[in-house]
Amino acid sequence: MVSIKIKYILRIKLNYNQILEELYNEAITKKIYSKELNTITIQNIETIAQNSFNQKGVFTVFVTLSIYKIIHPEQDIRNHQIQIKNGFSGRSIDTKYITPTLKKLGLPSMAESGWLTRSLEQPYPYNLDYEGKISNKAVKKAFLELVNDIEINQINPKYILVELFKLIIEEQGVNKNSSSTLVNIPKNIKIKNKSDITPTLGVKTVAETLASIIVNQYDDSGMMIGIFGKWGRGKTYLAEQTWEQIKEKKPKYKRIVFSAWKYQDTKSSWAYLYENFINEYLVENEENSFVDKVKNYLNKSKKIWKLNLEKHTWFPIISFGLLFTLAVVWSFFVDKIWLVKSLVSIFGLVVLIKLFFLYLQQKTSAIGLYQRYFTRKSYSDNLGFQSEVENELTNLLKTWIPESNQDEKVVLFVDDIDRCNIEQVISIIDGLRVILDNPEIHERLIIITAIDEKILKEALKHKYESIEDNKIDMMYGEYLEKIFLIGLKLNKLNNYEIEDFLNNILPEKQEEYTKSVYLGDNTFVGEKTFSNGEDIEKVSKKTTEEPKIEKSDYEISNKEREYLIEVIKKLENTTPRKIRIFYYKYLIMKQLFHIRLEEKDLIVNWHDDSDEKIIADILVHLANKNDLDKFENDKNTKIIEELKYVAEMVSVL
User: Fold this and answer.
1) Is 537 helix (H, G, I), strand (E, B) or coil?
2) Domain range holding 167?
3) Quick check: 651 and 627 in contact, CB under 8 A?
4) Number of other residues whose CB lies within 10 A of the CB of residue 307
5) Is 580 within the bounds of a domain?
6) What are the CA-CA distances from residue 406 to residues 249, 252, 278, 486, 487 (Å)?
7) Do the Cβ atoms of 419 and 261 come closer than 8 Å?
8) Which residues sit opposite 543 in a β-bridge?
9) Which of 84-98, 175-189, 256-270 has the highest mean pLDDT?
10) How far is residue 344's CA from residue 352's CA, in Å, rounded to a whole number?
11) With 596 labelled, which of 57, 77, 237, 463 sits at a CA distance of 20 to 30 A?
């Protein structure tokens, strides 16, 4: 029974797809059925065909109903929903079979189903008095009358579909070289990882230079390097690229990343810094087997042993060993009675008692005398938590790198200082500088910080608020010279750098299929457009393979790419992060805009260039903090309203 049911389902699926493709093939070969149709029916077909791209929901629903009627002639196709008496699920048939095939054939289609259009999803039969508010009254009348022709007047839906497809194919042929086309909506939006982006803006050259200075420059006061630039300018990225260059030059160098803003309380911040160090020191190899786990455990235990040995030295262990040995000898190997008798016979009992009481009387003064002349006064307990962390770091670094040398160091990258509370910024930087004053540390440690110099200046002003503003600039310069050995500022992007970076995150130019026509028997005719930045070469192609590249597969068209490169230069205070955000907002806005137009039945054949320019222009308008209500364009008022609605949705960043 199950086998029979599966075969039935497969047959139905094949029928929906095959019948639609066969009818389309008949339209390609210009099969004539108009003689079987009356004048009013032909006029209604023409109305649907002429509006098929701006009323894709109506077109898709009608095709679904017609194909369903061919396969199930007993079904009243006006009852398009299950909740309608004697109804069926037109939406599920459309979603599974019709819409995918329409897309395959290059015919008008919705993103998922025509029934997602509000005017068509109403739970009423498609009678001539259907209450759904289809915006185009002529299209609504033509649609309902054609459904009525099929269901009441018994007109063969095959005749209607073939004639309808013929008109649409002719329309596509007339407009294929025109600039009027649908909004290009990507099926998928791909966001590149930073690691997948090739270094631009001269970053690689700067990173190589900075890395060479770091590994070759020795400074006896400690090396602290500052990378300055506004938020999103690429400070962290430059630090990453610099580390890649350092690693190539000095394979034994280690790196630790410390996010300063994660724990901003003073104790928590320094504790977190130490945890970053110890975690990197104890880093384990990848575990693929039980043996690997055992090796990792033994290796970790060995490292902890070495670290604590550096901290406490051998003295406690040796002392404990001697005392333990004496205790064992005393307990098991000494004749205590004989020992006592011997001491009494030598010194006498009275002398021993006197010596014992003398020890008790002079014990305190003797110890005090020793401490006075042989120990030093220490206030280390009052130095605070930072001093404790510094001592622990010293022990850790000496254990990690026993002998300081130029081939083995630890690079500490301190990020997000400018995201800390303003009163914490200076204390963090000063604390790092103080740590480097320890010779045992600065011989083994290099610190690279990334910070917005504007935030740093504000923090300095906040700390010394009593100092006049005109003296802060001079103090700021002196402060930088005192703290940093090397300082590097990332300037504002120029137009060339903006274009260079945007080109790096945009998808590469690819060949585009502007049309794909199905001929049946798995044969397609495609018109290829090769876009290489020079002349456009159009080549007719006949193949047995379906074209693998569709224009709708792209995030953007080549024309969009060119305009984005130009319009993004109008952004104020442009940074790499701002460019990335702008581009991904643009892609998301296209998706949302397309959905809004479909919901409002406003999909129209408008100029491709203008579509893309409007979306990019309104995003620049918003990004530059301009009033959305003041954005003007000569496009359809309702479309501009929808565009503004969607633009406001993505304007939070």
Assistant:
1) strand
2) 2-175
3) no
4) 19
5) yes
6) 11, 10, 22, 18, 21
7) yes
8) 524
9) 84-98
10) 8
11) 77
Of 106-115, 143-152, 161-170, 353-362, where does mean pLDDT reach its minimum?
Answer: 353-362
Handedness of CA 54, 58, 61, 62 (dihedral sign): negative
pLDDT confidence band for 69 (50 / 70 / 90) = very high
Q: How far apart are CA 631 and CA 644, in angstroms?
A: 9
Ordered DSSP codes for 284-340: -----SHHHHHHHHHHHHHHHHHHHHHHH-SHHHHHHHHHHHHHHHHHHT--HHHHH
Asked whether 584 and 619 are in contact (CB, 8 A), the reply is: no
Same domain for 226 and 139: no
| Count of helices and strands (H, E) across the chain | 24, 8
191: three-class secondary structure by DSSP:
coil
Q: What is the pLDDT of residues 302-355, one digit of tens each?
A: 888 888 888 778 887 887 788 888 777 777 776 767 766 776 677 676 666 776
Interatomic CA distance for residues 568 and 37, integer angstroms = 55
pLDDT in tens, 455-508: 988 888 888 887 777 778 788 888 888 888 888 888 888 888 888 888 887 776
Q: How many domains does the chain have?
A: 4
Instruction: Check residue 336 and give its pLDDT.
Output: 67
Spatial separation of the C-alpha atoms in residues 156 and 143, rounded to whole Å? 15
161 and 243 assigned to the same domain: no
CB-side neighbour CA atoms (13 Å) of 574: 21
d(CA 483, CA 491): 21
- If we measure between CA atoms, which residue out of 431, 481, 433 comes closest to residue 269? 431
DSSP 29-98: TT---GGGS-HHHHHHHHHHHHTTTTSHHHHHHHHHHHHHHHH-TTS-TT--STTSTT---HHHHIIIII
Q: Report the candidate in 183, 71, 75, 113 with the shortest Cα–Cα distance to residue 590.
A: 183
Is there a single domain that holds both residue 221 and residue 95? no
- Token pair 């066969």 is at which residue? 22
